[in-house]
Amino acid sequence: MNFKNIAFISSSTQAARNACARLRKKHGRVPLKSADVVVVLGGDGTMLKTLHQCFELNIPIYGMNRGTVGFLMNEFKETSLLKRLERAKTVQLHPLLMKVKTVSGVKKDAYCVNEVALLRQTRQAANLRISIDGKIRMEELICDGAVVATPAGSTAYNLSAHGPIIPMGAELLALTPISAFRPRRWRGALLPDSAKIVLEIQEPKKRPVSAVADYTEVRNVKSVTILQQKDISLNLLFDEEHNLEERILNEQFIP
After folding, report:
1. Is residue 130's pLDDT more than 70?
2. How far apart are CA 199 and CA 118, in angstroms?
3. Confidence band (pLDDT; 50, 70, 90) for 1?
4. Terminal-to-terminal C-alpha distance of the chain
């Protein structure tokens, strides 16, 4: 693949901005829409923001860690960038679409790469009804919230809520409760990524809930429908020694 035209995007940290300036001086400065590849300098938050910008551009994205965790990033090196890009392996991601209806009747759609999270807004626990492909699977879930995560997002908020880690390519989604009170011992479910997931908020005025797709938040929701969008593909590039599939597999053996 030809990586002659490289667009560089950085986070707001000084280290990322300095690195971005040096790389632009060496490789040139190209607008995002004219790029053959995007190189992201920062952390996972900057990568998520860039992924959202590139939904309709169909160009590969290569991250270098100038942030903290950097789960979606490669090791930062300024040398041999073109060779690294040529040798990198592609991991394809498909985002989730969150379709929300609020208590006041407003409808809003938002995409996410990691997860959709429903969160209680007040001291009152949330009361959720769960339907999968048109069939009610759980009439009442009293909890602080719930997470629907993709394989790429399964090691993020989902893992913190004691949800399962999903290997890349498993064609599964994780539905994980956050601090479930009733049924107390329910730990969630693994669902096919073709599933239509509907979470209805019971007593939404008394027990208000917000819905978050990556960094898009909608408050006072009444129902949330979640679908994976197989027609949208996001191509992340990883160094062979930093393969995302391998990293997710390794996470399952960390004590």
Report:
1. yes
2. 9
3. low
4. 39
Q: Considering Cα of 6, then 12, then 16, then 20, what sign does the dihedral take?
A: positive
SS3 label, residue 206:
coil
DSSP state letter for 2: -
Question: Does residue 91 contact residue 238 with C-beta atoms inside 8 Å?
Answer: yes
Helical H runs in the chain?
14-27, 44-53, 81-87, 157-160, 244-251
Q: For residue 160, what are the contacts with CB-CB under 8 A and spacing of at least 6?
A: none
Determine what percent of the chain falls in helix, strand and coil, rounding each to the nearest 5: 20, 40, 40
CA distance 152 to 93: 8
Q: Please state, in angstroms and rounded to a whole number, the distance separating the CA atoms of residues 53 and 7.
A: 13
Of 36, 44, 109, 231, which residue is the catalytic one?
A: 44
Residue 18 neighbours by CB under 8 Å, 6+ apart = none
Domains located in the chain, CATH noted: 6-94+233-251 (3.40.50.10330), 96-228 (2.60.200.30)
Q: Tens digit of pLDDT for each residue in 15-65?
A: 999 999 999 999 999 999 999 999 999 999 999 999 999 988 889 999 999
Catalytic (active site) residue 144: no
The per-residue pLDDT for range 187-240, each reduced to its tens digit, is: 999 999 999 999 999 999 999 999 999 989 999 999 999 999 999 999 999 998
